[in-house]
Amino acid sequence: MIEIRFHGRGGQGAVIASKILAMAFFAEGKYVQSFPLFGVERRGAPVAAFTRVDDKPVRMKCNIYTPDCIIVLDPTLTRTVDIAAGLKKGGSILINSDLPPEEYKEKYSGFNIATIDADSIAREFKLGSLTSPIINTVILGAFSAQTGLVKLESIQEGIRKEIPIKTEANCEAAKKAYENVKLLN
Amino acid sequence: MKSVLMGNHSVSYGVMLSRVKVIAAYPITPQTQVVEELSELCATKKLDATFIKVESEHSALACVLGASLAGSRAFTATSAQGLALMHELIHWAGLGRFPIVLANVNRAMGPGWNIWSDQNDSLSQRDCGWIQLYCENNQEVLDNVIIGYKIAEKVLLPVMLVYDAFILSHTYEIVDIPEQSQVDQFLPPFKSEYKLDVENPACFGGLTSPEHYYELRYNMQQAMEQAVEVYKDAQREFKEIFGRDYPMIEEYRCDDAQYLYITSGSITSTARIVVDELREKGYKIGLLKIKTFRPMDKAELIRLLKGREKVFILDRNISVGVGGIFAQEIKAYLYGQKYMPEIYPFIIGLGGRDIPPSSIMEAFNYAVIENKKPEDILYIGLKK
Questions:
Q1: Domain B249-379, what architecture?
Q2: Is residue B7 within 8 Å of residue B36, measured between CB atoms?
Q3: Predicted confidence (pLDDT) at residue A185 exceeds the cutoff of 90
């Protein structure tokens, strides 16, 4: 079973991202489960969302404590939240950041780190506004390239099912992120 | 068609497929998306039903009872304080023999104000004459809306469909949405024998003297007893059409089991993992999932428990002064029976406290590994 945890801020669309990712794996014939942090969410406050993926039905119905992958939608969260908490040894961390992954190497040593400047890509494709770009679909393209766990086409299929407006712009932005993710050397 | 659905939307689709004609509901966390999706389905004409906006849960249930009495298949959904506000009409629905379905998302009663999973809301309505169906996953949630109407309309008792806050309500899982034609085959249109009819005027729920009241209650008890067979028939028929069923008491790896967990709701799903782990270690252990709190299949319960050594009942609820409600009921059913196991009644996960496999394992460790004696109430994960 693969367990994935999203860190974002209320309003960034972490829950929708966790659902689209589940739908992408589902499109590849996997069993999936996704859920928000069971809490009271407020815009701007740190939030989390989760996706489980398996080859057999997912029976585990509790929080995720030892994820395999972490996706961070807002880089400022790395300063306030222990985003690597419980992450399995050798697990992956993907951060929406214009910095190279090497910048995070010391802080998160022993993990497979990647970064993507999702804000710039979202602005380019006019997703959200200039001051608050919407990057929840963009970053999933980068996740596909970083981990190889799910195909870009499946992510796009999930976006098409879940995002009713600017659907193709979201798909294209995810593709651009797929092509531009920066992996730790 | 297989789809990725949250528990709340699974309810909405079950209601749509059941061709419900009247919906009245008031939104409350964590039930809100049930109502949102239904209002959307009505607005887009995917569901040909009247959606009545109301100012409270009490009014929601009153509307639904009125609609049912007028001969319509009717639905409402709520949770916790909302269900409590309905309480007067929860009795009315049961005692008046209204064949409605109410979806209740199990949420802790406040104060302390809490929106997370806990069974005390639905279980505190247990004496009102309702059938209660507890669900383990979102497929079960959807299917049992449909099955709920089938049973309710046969025995003329209301059905409460119960599922955990967030763990099911807000969690997306793969759900097979049945075909409308198949649902129509299983659930024909609602034909009410007793309804408001200007051609044939009658009064319902009027003054009932001591001369007659007693027998009305006796008839309800009879109906609840008959519900056991009606439930089994409905499940058999459902399985023939859809290939799935939900036994009143489901056995999991029980064949030669000395030890049994007894669970209800979504805890069951995680507990299956624990049973598998213990089986791999060589322990003869299984699980019983209680699907129906009312009615209980007493004969089956006794048959399944006879000759076992130890049973661990996990209650995500507490009747203050007594302990776990499932444990209390099960003990009562077993009174006077021979060869019954030792009962370990555990309270677990109140107010949505998370229940990972390690918490479920604690029950086994206490009773088997540490070989401790049962007590009236045992607590898992209590902070001291």
A1: 3-Layer(aba) Sandwich (3.40)
A2: no
A3: no
pLDDT tens digits, one per residue of B208-260: 999 999 999 999 999 999 999 999 999 999 999 999 999 999 999 999 999 99
Nearest to A61 among B2, B167, B174 (CB): B167
Partners of residue B270 in chain A, C-beta under 8 Å: 59-62
**How, if at all, do strands B249-252 and B285-290 pair?**
antiparallel
Pick the closest to residue B229 from B146, B118, B154, B315 (CA basis): B154
CATH topology of domain B2-242: Rossmann fold (3.40.50)
Chain B neighbours among A 26-65 (CB < 8 Å)?
A: 26, 31-36, 38, 40, 57-63, 65
Please tell me which of the candidates A35, A59, A63 has its beta carbon nearest to residue B269.
A59
Give yes or no for residue A42 having a pLDDT over 90. no
Of A19, A62, A63, the CB nearest to B172: A19
Q: What is the CATH number of domain A2-183?
A: 3.40.920.10
Count the residues in chain A: 185
| Whole-number Å distance between alpha carbons of B254 and B180 | 36
Structure tokens at B137: 């996953």
Cβ distance B172 to A40 less than 8 Å, yes or no, reads no
User: Which helix (H) or strand (E) segment is A51 a member of?
Assistant: strand A46-54
pLDDT tens track for B44-83: 999 999 999 999 999 999 999 999 999 999 999 999 999 9
d(CA A62, CA B349): 11
The answer to whether the beta carbons of residues A121 and A138 sit under 8 Å apart is yes
DSSP lists the bridge partners of residue A94 as: A71, A114
B236 φ/ψ sector (left φ>0, alpha ψ -120 to 50, else beta):
alpha
Find the DSSP H helices in chain B: 7-17, 32-43, 57-69, 80-85, 87-95, 120-123, 138-155, 180-186, 210-242, 267-280, 298-305, 325-334, 357-364
Using an 8 Å Cβ cutoff, are A96 and A116 in contact? yes
What are the tens digits of pLDDT across the range B346-375?
999 999 999 999 999 999 999 999 999 999
Q: What is the pLDDT of residue A177?
A: 98
What is the residue extent of each domain of chain B? 2-242, 249-379
CB B261 within 8 A of CB B275: yes
Domain boundaries defined on chain A: 2-183
CA distance B283 to B276: 10
